[in-house]
Amino acid sequence: MRLGLALGYWGRGPSADQVALAQEAERLGYHSVWTAESWGSDAFTPLTWIAAHTSTIRLGTAVAQMAARSPTATAMHALTLDHLSGGRTMLGLGLSGPQVVEGWYGRPFPSSPLTATREYVDVVRQVLRRGAPVELDGRFHPLPYRGADGTGLGRPLKSITHPLRPDLPVLLGAEGPKNIAQTARIADGWLPLYWSPLRTEVYEPSLAGAPEGFLVAPMARARVCADVTEGLLPVKAMLGFYIGGMGHAKRNFHADLMARMGYEEEARRIQELFLAGRREEAVLAVPDAFADEISLVGPRERIARRLELWREGPVTDLLVLTPDPHTLRVLAELNS
């Protein structure tokens, strides 16, 4: 199991230590570093800055939102960064949810998410292969565009720039069982939002068709500390926000996932509290057991034991979310 450093997206502004963290992760032998986006900082610009200050560590988006760019624009970002970094780019994509897609990007959330994802990946692959001009008779991403409001003058185009690698890895952030199963068919890897090494049976049916070499790269908050309860608070704060606020009361993919993992009653309670404006209570309502399952928190000896559970399953890459260089070093030592 390889280690990656997950930096997420910016809060109020850029973190001054992200480049230093990435450089330390590279020095420690981490395989990859990953950035994200929500409705603020983008995923590609920080990754490009990190690329300029590192030399070997892989550079991934976990995830770049599909609604933020057309598939050809995303492919342009990926192939450009791949050239500038010497072939280190890994493209992680995700649909996001209706609130972000419609509220921030101003476009309809796809009525068929599976079809929209499949078409998006198809176009990205065509651009990267550069075997012929890009064409797709698609429902969501038709190329050329032939809608009634178009000019009718569009024609298939092939990238002017020759991609460095036609097989640049494409990974997908997927949560629903059908979406995960499709990911195993059309992508090079999967980026789970929550992964519990104690409940791998939740994912087994969806991953049954995954080919050899398929990447499973979950993100996990990590912190070496003496007090487990205190160390879990940032995990619970994240879960309270995602489960309570990242979605509508009737359509929240994160809450649905928590329910499938055995915490349905708790997930609905978190939503209820968060949407009622009782955010601190929503965070406290997150079960310590669930937060603990999906993270690596506590003294070194405890993390060492729990890390063995992660290595026993199908995880190929553990993306560690921590601002702490000491935690990065401890995990590198334990995983060596």
Automatic annotation (TrEMBL):
Keywords: Oxidoreductase. The keyword Signal does not apply. Pfam families: Bac_luciferase (PF00296). InterPro entries: F420-G6PD/mer, F420_OxRdatse_Rv3520c_pred, Luciferase-like_dom, Luciferase-like_sf. One of its GO terms (molecular function) is oxidoreductase activity, acting on paired donors, with incorporation or reduction of molecular oxygen. PANTHER family: 5,10-METHYLENETETRAHYDROMETHANOPTERIN REDUCTASE, PTHR43244. This is LLM class F420-dependent oxidoreductase. It comes from Streptomyces cadmiisoli. The lineage of its organism: Bacteria, Bacillati, Actinomycetota, Actinomycetes, Kitasatosporales.
